[in-house]
Specification:
The complex is a heterodimer of chains A (about 450) and B (about 400). Helices cover about 55% and strands about 15% of the residues of chain A. Chain A has about 450 residues and is of the alpha+beta class. Chain A has a four-stranded antiparallel β-sheet. A four-stranded antiparallel β-sheet of chain A has the order 3-9-6-7, with no helix packed on it. Chain A starts with a helix and ends in an 8-residue tail after the last helix. Chain B is an alpha/beta fold and about 400 residues long. In chain B, helix 12 runs antiparallel to helix 13. The chains are: A alpha+beta (about 450), B alpha/beta (about 400). Chains A and B meet through helix 1 and helix 4 of A and helix 2 and helix 3 of B.
Chain lengths: ~450, ~400
């Protein structure tokens, strides 16, 4: 069954058109796109555009094929012969799905190889300056993960403070000593993350993997906020790597003037900063900001607001995972398409499947719109008024389950950022899309298909 | 002990409903019928009398509104039953993008036939239905209706079915094809003891092949019985003979008038158009007029109903001793030593090789088949067309 659907797909003009479109997209983009005129930007733009386009087109082609194959068997009555052969309806249904997926996978692999080839071609073009070449090698053509600063032990000092207050000063905590300890821990953590005017804080990073080459660069990313921000939102900060043991400076400090509330990044040589997998970064808040007469208190919202990105895997592995994510979209949509075509005609099934596709791609926005991401909604700003909590209790799990967040189950953003795509993310996305698709196919789909008359006559 | 019927239909009713589940058409109304093993059973009736609906319910393509249907003692949607059924639908519901070989291969795969077996049966079936090799490589969508139906017949036979269900088997076929199908039905039914259920509104077809018929009208059985019972006309007598002189006819007429007090109608029988057509095609074939259409070898696919070993022996024997050219007109009995050798080989083969459906092969069941394979190939269409012995002349 799968093999037949595969051949059927190949002979459907729709799929041919898509293949031609893919070739066009893939051949055109690498030469047309310039990005921000750096080679790295060009590579990122190319990867992002071409993978998104290919993912979308293959998903559309698979949807069409999935919706057409079973509905057409009903319509052209070729199903009559198949059903009278010793093949169960379940086999027919699953065979159709497998066939569509096989074709989708083949198209994806073909396109992925072509795109990879062009990406290598762009990567190997001569870079105009060193930083561009380093960015391509150590930021994009890699798979990195982030290390956030190791939190010092706040619990011991917090306990001591509580103990001292209870024992020496005879203070009594109404909410209990444990709550008081937790409160002190939070206070100490806030202090650790806050940079007062003319203050510097040393943040230690652990477990960083050693660089592959002596000239490998790691990337530092930070995002700060200010309690009373300047009018133009620009804040200057100093960064300096130090030896984690002796605290001696490992180079001159770097000074960056950047807007608040946005993530900024800079490159730093990995070999000098690392001492046995550890690094120490001193972040300083200058007493007087550049061009200004005063300083600002800034802080990191959490320890994840400051991170060092280091290489943990290869670009190729990451690329494979990103393509697998696209395949999961295809497999999910084909399952939905085959499901709909068990009981409707091709146009209706295609329409329904595309509706599910659109809703799934935007399910994050949808959840945001109904206030699922806000924790403290008052009836006044609740989109549903006082009924909000009840409606959300019903709607949010339904949307989260029935419309897999395809925008989140995507590896493209991580891929072009050189950010390691975690296997558990991929597995979770697979469980959600494939599991849900198969459930749809096997339970209602199979029950409907089994009960439906192959030679159905509508009078 | 009574024989278990192959198909048993009790109180079958089928009501077609519209989108709102309202009853619209009562296609089959309280129908009872029973098809016994080894018989060729005809479902007759005008268009819309419920023939196809009945067949589709027997195949599990439609669900009955009321009533009970069993095939080989099981419900029709049982997958195990389906491996023993061959089905030729009313229209040729084939995948338009597959060619003939791919089509047969695909359906063979659905029956889980091994690759070698599929290839062997495919070649035999393509020969049998008379599809030339170049045509077998074109997609089925390009075929004429008759050619598509030939493929349809071939796919219905690929699993060597015990029960063959044919819905309007001769519709859309030229007289050659119709003759081929009718001959195939008769031979598959009689020689290989297959059960065949066929529906038709072409009465001549049914008359020539069926043992028992049911005539449907309005979803009900109007008449049923064996061919002889149904067609017997006791109030008339027909005398057939060589040409008589007018005097003799006059005397006979006088005699009848005197004895019975009735008059006698005398007419010269006309040739049937079918025979005329076949004769013209045969003459054209002898002049070797080229045709892009399908030809006919008149062979029945050898795997049907026979064990490979036994069949190979038969084929060898046939090759060694060609039939006399004039065999088409007379029933030449097989030479006794040959028949004995065939039987001896088959007995040896039958004890070891199981049948495809998993039941042990019994020698008794196949003795008559085997004995008849030898003398009968000459009754096939080709011998009628060309007057040659069957294996001598191949199709284009």
């Amino acid at each position: 069954m799968a093999r037949l659907t595969f051949w059927e797909g190949l002979r459907m003009r729709v799929v041919l058109v898509v293949v031609i479109a893919l070739v066009f997209v893939v051949l055109r983009l690498p030469f047309a796109l310039r990005g921000d005129e750096t080679l790295a930007g060009r590579l990122q733009t190319f990867l992002s555009y071409s993978l998104t386009a290919v993912g979308f087109l293959v998903a559309v082609a698979s949807t069409f094929l999935a919706c057409a194959t079973l509905a057409n068997e009903f319509k052209t009555q070729t199903l009559h012969l198949v059903v009278t052969k010793p093949v169960s309806r379940f086999q027919i249904l699953i065979g159709k799905w497998l066939g569509v997926n096989l074709l989708g996978l083949c198209m994806l692999i073909l396109c992925a190889l072509v795109i990879y080839g062009f990406a290598v071609f762009i990567k190997n073009r001569p870079a105009l300056f060193l930083r561009d070449a380093l960015t391509i090698r150590d930021v994009i053509w890699t798979a990195r993960t982030a290390a956030s600063p190791t939190e010092p032990d706040f619990l011991t000092p917090a306990r001591e403070m509580v103990k001292e207050q209870v024992e020496r000063q005879g203070r009594f905590f109404a909410a209990g000593d444990q709550a008081a300890v937790a409160e002190y821990v939070q206070k100490l953590r806030d202090e650790w993350l806050r940079l007062n005017v003319a203050e510097a804080e040393l943040y230690e990073f652990e477990g960083l993997l050693p660089p592959e080459r002596p000239d490998t660069v790691y990337q530092v990313r930070y995002r700060v906020r200010a309690s009373s921000p300047p009018l133009d939102d620009l804040v200057t900060l100093d960064f300096q790597f130090r030896d984690p043991d002796t605290l001696t400076p490992l180079g001159p400090p770097s000074r960056f003037k950047m807007p608040l509330n946005q993530e900024h990044q800079f490159l730093a040589g990995a070999t000098p900063m690392l001492r046995g997998g550890r690094a120490a970064l001193l972040v300083g808040n200058p007493p007087v900001q550049e061009d200004r007469m005063l300083g600002f208190v800034v802080f990191f919202e959490s320890r994840d607001s400051l991170k060092v990105l280091y290489r943990v895997g290869s670009f190729e592995m990451n690329y494979t995972k990103a393509v697998l994510f696209i395949f999961l979209h295809v497999a999910f949509l084909s399952a939905v398409g085959v499901f709909f075509s068990t009981f409707t005609s091709f146009p209706v099934a295609a329409f329904c499947t595309f509706a599910i596709y659109a809703l799934s791609a935007a399910s994050g926005v949808w959840l945001e719109a109904i206030g699922a991401n806000d924790q403290y909604l008052t009836p006044k700003d609740d989109p549903y008024g006082s009924l909000g909590p009840f409606i959300r209790a019903l709607l949010v799990p339904l949307i989260q389950f029935a419309f897999p967040d395809l925008a989140r189950y995507s590896g493209i953003r991580n891929l072009i950022d050189g950010y390691y795509i975690r296997l558990d993310e991929l597995l979770w996305a697979a469980a959600h899309t494939l599991g849900y698709g198969l459930l749809l196919l096997v339970l209602p789909g199979w029950l409907i298909f089994r009960a439906r008359e192959a030679a159905e006559v509508q009078v | 002990m009574s024989v278990q019927p192959v198909i048993s239909v009790v109180g079958l009713t089928k009501v077609y409903r519209d989108f709102w589940r309202r009853a619209r058409v009562r296609a089959v109304n309280n129908l009872d019928l029973e098809v016994r093993p080894g018989e060729i059973f005809g479902l007759l009736g005008p268009n819309g009398s419920g023939k196809s609906t009945t067949i589709k319910i027997i195949l599990g393509l439609l669900n009955p509104t009321r009533g009970r249907v069993t095939v080989f003692g099981r419900p029709p949607d049982d997958v195990r039953v389906k491996s023993r059924i061959g089905y030729l639908p009313e229209e040729s519901y084939l995948y338009r993008f597959l060619n003939a070989r791919e089509t047969l291969d695909y359906y063979g795969t659905l029956f889980q036939l091994p690759r070698g077996e599929r290839r062997r049966r495919m070649a035999q079936l393509l020969d049998m239905v008379g599809l030339p090799r170049h045509a077998a490589r074109r997609p089925v969508g390009e075929y004429s209706k008759g050619m598509a139906r030939r493929i349809g017949l071939a796919q219905a036979l690929i699993n060597d079915p015990d029960l063959l269900i044919l819905d309007e088997p001769t519709s859309g076929l030229d007289p050659l094809g119709a003759k081929l199908v009718k001959d195939a039905i008769v031979r598959i039914g009689q020689e290989f003891k297959k059960t065949i259920l066929l529906s038709s509104h072409l009465l001549a077809d049914v008359e020539e092949v069926c043992h028992r018929v049911v005539i449907l009208y309005g979803g009900r059985i109007q008449t049923s019985g064996t061919m002889e019972q149904v067609l017997a006309r006791n109030e008339q007598v027909q005398l057939t003979g060589e040409r008589l002189s007018p005097q003799t006819i006059n005397e006979i007429q006088n005699l009848v008038r005197q004895r019975e007090g009735r008059s006698l109608t005398v007419s010269v029988p006309r040739d049937r158009l079918e025979h005329l057509f076949l004769r013209i095609v045969r003459e054209a074939h002898e002049r070797q007029v080229e045709s892009a259409g399908s030809g006919v070898t008149g062979e029945i696919a050898a795997f049907l109903g026979a064990e490979q070993q036994g069949r190979e022996v038969i084929e060898q024997l046939v090759r060694v001793e060609p039939e006399p050219a004039a065999a088409g007109e007379s029933e030449t009995p097989a030479p006794a030593p040959v028949a004995e050798a065939v039987l001896a080989e088959l007995t040896a083969a039958g004890q070891t090789a199981p049948r495809p459906d998993g039941q042990p092969a019994t020698t008794e069941a196949r003795k008559p088949d085997a004995a008849r394979v030898k003398p009968e190939p000459d009754r096939s269409l080709l011998s009628e067309l060309s007057g040659e012995e069957p294996r001598g002349g191949g199709s284009s």
